[in-house]
Amino acid sequence: MVEFLSQYQVKKINDRDWNSDVSKETGFMIEIRTENEVVMASIYENQLMSINNNGDYYKVVNGPIEIRWVYDYIKGFDNF
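Above: the chain's sequence. Below: its structure in token form.
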């Protein structure tokens, strides 16, 4: 999944430029835990937010992100 997401370019934006109305966008929240840290993010078709460190906001420059691909990828882990 990291390889898939790495194809997208993002640009950091101010929190006032973040469109908080994501009701019309498909997205997901991801949480990755390692031995030393937890990384959490909300990823939508055209923007994403890192929840760590007071939140950083990003606009997807070359999107939209193919959210359907992510759902299909996750479905492959039914026993996960």
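Helices lie at 2-5, 67-75.
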